[in-house]
Amino acid sequence: MTECESLSSWLRLTLIPGIGGETQRKLLTAFGLPDAVFSADRSSLRAVIGERSTRLLLDTDNAFLVESAKEWSQEADQRIVTLADPEYPQSLLEIPDPPTLLYVRGRLDLLNRPALAIVGSRNPTPQGIQNAERFASTFADAGLVIASGLALGIDAAAHRGALASTGDTIAFIGTGIDRIYPARNKELALEVASRGVVVSEFPIGTPVTAANFPRRNRLISGIARGVLVVEAAIVSGSLITARLGGEQGREVFAIPGSIHSPQSRGCHKLIKQGAKLVETAQDVLEELNWQTTLVAASPTNDKADGVPHALLSLMGFDPCSLDELAERSDLSADSLSVILLDLELSGRVASLPGGRYQQLQEV
């Protein structure tokens, strides 16, 4: 059987209304690859999935949908990845209900790179947006792929943070991959598809359906080593993602906020339930036992010898801006940004809202 014929069998199996993931996995476990499923006799199929599902399996004509999906997958940077493909995300094989196939637009290599999920409120505070962008950028610099859901708010900020760094980001969406939702994120979705990767388990043409978004959350958490919640209300889809991550054996992290902010209550709830409280990027990297390969660029100015230690002395322990540090140190903003990022990763400096930095006291 050719590769094209094999893909046709995978698509035929997954594009039958009423034959969901659980039934698909039963068939694959019993018979092997999809072509063997469709070669099996009716009585053998009935013994595995019952009469109704067998009738749907054998009598449904979805040839048009199959051909449309195959045509989509032949475009540049577009692929349909099945459970049998080496490019399939191996981390998703660890979850209870991995998708039978994935529609992928963008870089396949990111699907099997170490990832961190960053999620949060669709109505975040300005500080939450800044935190999501800065943390995502720092983690991307450290070599982690940023996974999120392309929603408004924290999700979008996380993708933007990764794009501002390496571009290594995965967006799991709750519609067909030919749809962009929400429309306000159209440009962001196109940039993620160009530099990172957009992934959907839903057939092409699947419209916006409320039930699909909680379902896609299991993939955001499942592909990652941990889930970081930046801001979340007490009732939030982000808490669903965090719960799923915990059930999947992933680490769960939360950034605390003001006790007066509704957008902090979800994070505080997670922390009470055992999520790791996060103040710096290093908190997450240490918990993941992640050894970053990031090395700050060596300044060419002779005055910069021993800069990290000297810069900490110049900072003191009060918050200060990049401009203030540039004036005190006589270093350029670019050089300072590299050094401060390295200090932040090592847990010696924290970035604050408003572009300020603060030295962390050792305890």
UniProtKB/TrEMBL annotation:
Query: Which InterPro entries does this one have?
Result: DprA (IPR003488), DprA_WH (IPR041614), DrpA_SLOG (IPR057666), RuvA_2-like (IPR010994), WH-like_DNA-bd_sf (IPR036388)
Q: What is this protein called?
A: Protein smf
Name the source's superkingdom.
Bacteria
What family is this? Belongs to the DprA/Smf family.
Question: Which biological process, per GO, is one annotated for this protein?
Answer: DNA-mediated transformation
**Smf/DprA SLOG domain ranges (all copies):** 80-288
Residue ranges of domain DprA winged helix in the record: 296-355
The record ties this protein, via PANTHER family, to:
PROTEIN SMF
Organism, scientific name:
Candidatus Propionivibrio aalborgensis
